[in-house]
Write a structure and sequence with these properties.
The chain is of the alpha+beta class. It contains eleven helices and 24 strands. The longest helix is centred in the middle third of the chain and has 20 residues.
């Protein structure tokens, strides 16, 4: 008797036919190794005619897949390509029946359309990349929503059988995040960049806020929304807090708490020479507390640097800019080939293999500590990215800043271990920084 959840399958076998008498209508089919299973089904009995003497029952949740928007059962490869091209969204995808009977294919849109057959191992588990194996196809899709892990891009937007990507705002936890634009008063511009503008504003005429909007055509709205979704899941006193979003008008905007003293990098440079050891260590401690929270909750920031931290009017430092942040299930994220990343803040496994983890954030944190104790200098100043990759690969590391004690520098240096497993965790770093802060007092 084989039992899966509440369904009981009772097997009887003759030389060429195996019968499965089942109390539910769920049919489980697929092809494993070289054994071919051909199924016929009546209301209560499923027959598997097999060409070998061994019957293998492989789990394929076909009846469950219909619940998911991304499942397009019987479309062909060319029809899938037509659907994806019509939507033309980077990371748009469908799951369809493969031309190989009993198997499934993931088709994904990027500059070059990709098709990946979902494979089974000997235990009946599913995978696209052998390192990442799952007991069901929905679990596999969920993982690759967050991780490219060998694919040309993440599976970002489900395209249904009739087209239609899942709306960008789908997944917002509730209407409480939506802010009425009429409640916002826009004041002066605080800064601008390649993708958008940040302005000072007031919410309901009382609370000072930062309003971040995107430049038209500068990035996909879905990417902008992705950052907001990440922020909705984060709550820590050393992370810049999301207040809400405006998604029902264009340009869309993200509304966050306002930090009076602005960007940490600029603050360090403007106050160079006046900061003492105690405050410099407190900057590192504030940042490390934020990163310990992200580490504990399975988020990888991927762009930790002084430029992506803000300073409050009380000189408290908070981590911000979650545009590259990813939620991971196994503490590892492999980005798509060609993805941009900050070379001078990146460890060898990112430089060579695009592999991110909390330990790659630890490396970046070591560089941030170096920025803090040099009061805002550029790491590897005067060297090209190519030269930096070469130096890091050959074992060269940043020098000890004048304001950093030997103990502080040793902590930085531990963050720059060649192997991720040789670096401390953020919890360990936080304990060390607190001890150094006590000694500094």
């Amino acid at each position: 008797i084989c039992t899966q959840s509440s369904t009981t399958h009772i097997l009887t076998q003759s030389s060429s036919t195996t019968q499965i008498h089942t109390q539910s209508s769920t049919t489980q089919i697929c092809t494993q190794s070289s054994t071919t299973h051909i199924l016929t089904q009546s209301s209560s009995t499923t027959q598997i005619h097999t060409q070998s003497s061994t019957t293998q029952i492989v789990h394929s949740p076909d009846s469950l897949l219909f619940r998911f928007r991304w499942y397009c059962q019987s479309i062909t490869r060319s029809e899938a390509e037509q659907l994806l091209r019509k939507e033309a969204k980077e990371g748009g995808f469908v799951v369809r029946e493969s031309s190989q009977q009993g198997c499934y294919t993931v088709s994904v849109f990027t500059k070059a359309l990709g098709h990946y057959q979902i494979k089974l191992d000997d235990s009946g588990s599913f995978y696209l990349c052998e390192k990442h194996i799952f007991t069901s196809i929905p679990e596999l899709i969920e993982y690759h929503n967050h991780n490219a892990a060998g694919l040309v891009t993440r599976l970002r937007y489900a395209v249904g059988p009739m087209g239609r990507c899942v709306p960008a705002t789908a997944g917002f936890s509730s209407e409480k995040w939506e802010i009425d634009p009429s409640e916002l008063t826009v004041m002066k511009e605080l800064g601008s960049g390649q993708f958008g503008v940040v302005r000072l504003g007031k919410w309901r005429a009382l609370c000072k806020v930062a309003i971040k909007t995107i430049n038209e055509g500068a990035m996909h709205e879905e990417d902008f929304i992705e950052e907001a979704k990440i922020m909705m899941r984060l709550c820590h006193p050393k992370l810049v807090q999301l207040y809400g979003v405006c998604t029902r008008q264009r340009p869309m905007c993200i509304v966050t708490e306002f930090m009076e003293n602005g960007c940490l990098l600029n603050y360090l440079r403007q106050n160079g020479g006046t900061a003492g050891q105690t405050w410099l260590l407190s900057v590192c401690q504030d940042t490390c507390e934020a990163m310990q929270y992200l580490e504990t909750h399975h988020f990888i920031h991927r762009d930790l640097a002084a430029r992506n931290c803000l300073v409050s009017d009380k000189n408290v430092v908070k981590v911000c800019d979650f545009g590259m942040t990813r939620y991971v299930l196994d503490n590892q994220y492999t980005s798509s080939t060609g993805s941009k990343f900050p070379v001078k803040w990146s460890p060898p496994e990112v430089l060579h293999y695009n592999k991110y983890s909390s330990k790659s954030d630890v490396w970046s944190f070591g560089v941030l500590m170096w920025e803090v104790f040099t009061e805002g200098k550029m790491p590897f100043d005067g060297r090209s990215n190519v030269d930096v990759v070469d130096e890091i690969t050959r074992g060269h590391r940043l020098y000890r800043p004048h304001k950093a004690s030997n103990d502080v520098y040793q902590l930085m240096y531990q963050c720059w271990h060649e192997r991720p497993q040789g670096r401390p965790s953020f919890s360990e770093l936080l304990d060390s920084i607190r001890l150094l802060a006590e000694l500094a007092d």
